[in-house]
Every structure is written in C-alpha cells, then in structure tokens.
UniProtKB/TrEMBL annotation:
Keywords: RNA-binding. PROSITE patterns: INTEGRASE. This is Integrase catalytic domain-containing protein. GO terms for biological process: DNA integration. GO terms for molecular function: RNA binding. GO terms for cellular component: nucleus. It comes from the Eukaryota. InterPro entries: Integrase_cat-core (IPR001584), Retrovirus_Pol_polyprotein (IPR050951), RNaseH-like_sf (IPR012337), RNaseH_sf (IPR036397). Residues 1-121 form the Integrase catalytic domain.
Length: 160
C-alpha cells in the first residue's frame, strides 16, 4: 500500500492516471493489490524483460544516469548548513538533481524531458539570482552558497 500511496501522491496527482505502465516484475507491481488497482482505473500493466533494449533500455539508461548523478554529488560532498546549523545532505538535494535532469537536452530527442512532459522548461534558480543585494538572511546566504557550489560541481562533473 505504501508504494501505491507514493505513486498516487507524487505521480498521479501531477500527471493523472496512466493508460499503460511498463514495469519490471517487482512483487510490488505483481501483487493482488496492484492487479486490482489497475483493473479499477483501467490501466494496462505491461512487464519488461530484463536486458530487452526496446522495453527496458530507456528506463535502464535513465536509472544509470541518475545513479551517476547521485554518485558524483556524494563524491563532491555537497552539503550546506542553515542558520540553525542543520546540515542538508544529498538526500535533500534529490529534487534539484531531478530538475537538472529534466532541464538538460537529451541526445535521443534533442529536447529536454521538461519540454516533452510539460511543453516548457522551468525557470532555473541560477537564472534569477540577484547579485545586487547588500543584506541577505544567513539561511538565504547559505542556500545561495550551496547553489553556487552545486553549479561549479555540476560543471566539474560534466568535464569528468
């Protein structure tokens, strides 16, 4: 049930109900609960075959790219502390990785995933950062420093 709630809260609430889902044979998706949910919503569940390029290749490539992004993020030790001294680590920054992934042009489509999904690219934080502010809240300053460091690390990662 936890997986169903996560998909409902994170995916379905944003995109709506899918007509077809391609999944591996994870027991979460082959259970009686999932079978009934697919019947209830009229969703077709198709299973991919391991190492079958036509059904599994794109998903596997995306997963590998995301793993590389997380690995590099961890390798550079990206972390920032807010004004209360609380450290935010790589888990906190996963949505930023997602934003970075969705706003990069992919060779296979010559488009960004954001364009293909929504029809537009979101405005990125670094496109809007003001440099003329004299006073800045400590947490905002720390966050800005983290964004600057993230941008520099991203450039280094792309050069590696």
């Amino acid at each position: 049930m936890d997986t169903a709630l996560l998909i409902w809260n994170i995916v379905v609430s944003w995109t709506g109900i899918f007509t077809n889902i391609i999944s591996d044979r994870d027991p979460k998706f082959t259970s009686a609960l999932w079978t009934n949910l697919h019947q209830l919503f009229g969703t077709k569940l198709s299973f991919s075959t391991a190492y079958h390029q036509q059904t599994d290749g794109l998903a596997e490539r995306m997963i590998q790219t995301l793993k590389d992004m997380v690995r590099r993020l961890c390798a550079y030790g990206l972390e920032f502390k807010d004004c209360d001294g609380f450290a935010h680590d790589w888990c906190t920054l996963l949505p930023a990785l997602e934003l970075g992934y969705k706003t990069q042009i992919h060779d296979s489509t010559n488009q960004t995933p954001a364009i293909l999904e929504k029809g537009w690219n979101p405005k990125l934080p670094q496109d809007s950062l003001r440099k003329d502010l004299v006073e800045i809240h400590p947490t905002a300053s720390s966050f800005k420093g983290m964004l600057d460091k993230a941008r520099k690390n991203a450039v280094r990662c792309m050069e590696d």
